[in-house]
């Protein structure tokens, strides 16, 4: 499955300027999603992080990983348009600056998804080099609430 920006907006709730993915090249529902963000010179965060040395904040790179992982979950049957929340980040590493005019590749994998808890991992790449990698957990509140006692 390939998703352009219009289709991405059908599956998840983030909107510009906070949408951190532009295109999804491949989705295997419940397994993985990969795609990219084309970083324009006028992205809102470049003016403030850091003036004279603009680069994409690591927290926004992590957000792109989470948004891509959410596509892998929200393309599962009956999950389209649901909310997902971040609950945990482990072993995040930032190893390369992401600059204006870069094409940032975003790869996310679902290690496990049970009872509304997704254990995920992923990395962003620029010019074939890893820029950010992390393991993280997402929850789907609608699903978790089914199992509350």
Give an account of the 3D structure.
A hairpin with a 2-residue loop joins strand 5 and strand 6 (129-139). The chain is an alpha+beta fold and 149 residues long. It has three helices and six strands. The protein has helices at 5-11, 58-74, 141-144, and strands spanning 23-28, 32-38, 85-94, 103-114, 117-126, 129-139. The protein has a six-stranded antiparallel sheet. It has one domain: Hotdog Thioesterase (Thiol Ester Dehydrase, Chain A, Roll), CATH 3.10.129.
Provide keyphrases for this structure.
alpha+beta; 38% strand; Thiol Ester Dehydrase, Chain A; 149 residues; 3 helices; 6 strands; 6-stranded antiparallel beta sheet
Short description:
The protein contains three helices and six strands. The protein is α+β, with helices and mostly antiparallel strands. It has a six-stranded antiparallel sheet.
Named CATH topology: Thiol Ester Dehydrase, Chain A
Name of the CATH architecture: Roll
Shape descriptor: globular
Low-confidence stretches: none
- CATH homology group: Hotdog Thioesterase
Helix and strand run: HEEHEEEEH
Report strand %.
35-45%
| Mean pLDDT across every amino acid position | 96
Number of helices: 3
What percent of residues adopt helix (DSSP H or I)?
A: 10-25%
What radius of gyration results from the CA coordinates? 15 Å
In the CATH scheme, the class would be Alpha Beta
Q: What is the count of distinct domains? A: 1
Spatial arrangement of strands, main beta sheet: 1-2-4-5-6-3
Report the major sheet: 6 strands, antiparallel
Distance between the termini: 37 Å
What is the SS-derived class?
A: alpha+beta
| Tally of DSSP β-strands | 6
């Amino acid at each position: 499955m390939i998703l352009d920006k219009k289709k991405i907006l059908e599956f998840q709730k983030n909107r510009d300027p906070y949408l951190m993915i532009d295109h999804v090249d491949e989705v295997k529902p419940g397994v993985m999603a990969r795609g990219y963000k084309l970083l324009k010179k006028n992205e809102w965060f470049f003016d403030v992080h850091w003036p004279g040395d603009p680069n994409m904040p690591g927290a926004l790179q992590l957000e792109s990983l989470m948004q891509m992982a959410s596509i892998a979950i929200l393309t599962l049957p009956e999950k389209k348009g649901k909310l997902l929340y971040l609950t945990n980040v482990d072993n995040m590493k930032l190893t390369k600056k992401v600059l204006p005019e870069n094409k940032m590749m975003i790869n996310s994998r679902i290690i496990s998804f049970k009872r509304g808890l997704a254990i995920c991992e992923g990395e962003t790449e620029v010019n074939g080099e890893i820029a950010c990698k992390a393991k993280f957990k997402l929850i789907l509140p609608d699903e978790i609430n089914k199992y509350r006692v």
